Amino acid sequence: ETGVTQTPRHLVMGMTNKKSLKCEQHLGHNAMYWYKQSAKKPLELMFVYNFKEQTENNSVPSRFSPECPNSSHLFLHLHTLQPEDSALYLCASSLDLAGGPDTQYFGPGTRLTVL
Amino acid sequence: AQKITQTQPGMFVQEKEAVTLDCTYDTSDPSYGLFWYKQPSSGEMIFLIYQGSYDQQNATEGRYSLNFQKARKSANLVISASQLGDSAMYFCAMREGLVIQGAQKLVFGQGTRLTINP
Questions:
Q1: What is the DSSP string of chain A?
Q2: Does position A112 have pLDDT exceeding 90, yes or no?
Q3: Which of B52, B105, B110 sits opposite A45 (nearest CB)?
């Protein structure tokens, strides 16, 4: 595997279900991100992790719970979601070096539908 | 005020023509970075090109170039000799501040949907 991978690619869940999204980066990066992309809205940053430590929580509801066990893996645990949470969830990673461009590389996304 | 503005919701271009996608940004920080991403219908955001605020020359990557006009706060993407595979959403994004230590936030524009006609 190369780059950033995400599983599953598609997920349909009911409002009472619990599910998890998985992201894995094979780039040797130290920072990982979750974004939400809803129709007709710009990408919204949800969470940022740097060296496994959460450095940003962008006022995300507690029904979204991130987990970063190491610099290569990132999870987004979902529970009691609402239909308005249906969106494309994108994971990204970057290598943060002082003076560097800090380019974020994205995975293919998980398209989530909440019924 | 929006940090990143992309004023063209959609553009239609004939194959092999050059196309310019507009992006203006708003920041008071002298140090920033500007990025362009392509998002095909499959969903993945593909990094295209980067321009740092202190870079003296416009960035180029193959058929992509960035027309960076700092005084006007614009960072337009130019695609030369467009191809059918260029049809996608294109997003401009900005990182404010220097990359020191720690992950940096990106702010994205609304995107432009580019359609290349044969």
A1: --SEEEE-SEEEE-TT-EEEEEEEE-S--SEEEEEEE-TTS--EEEEEEETTEEEEE-S--TTEEEEEEETTEEEEEEES--GGG-EEEEEEEE---TTS----EE---EEEEE-
A2: yes
A3: B105
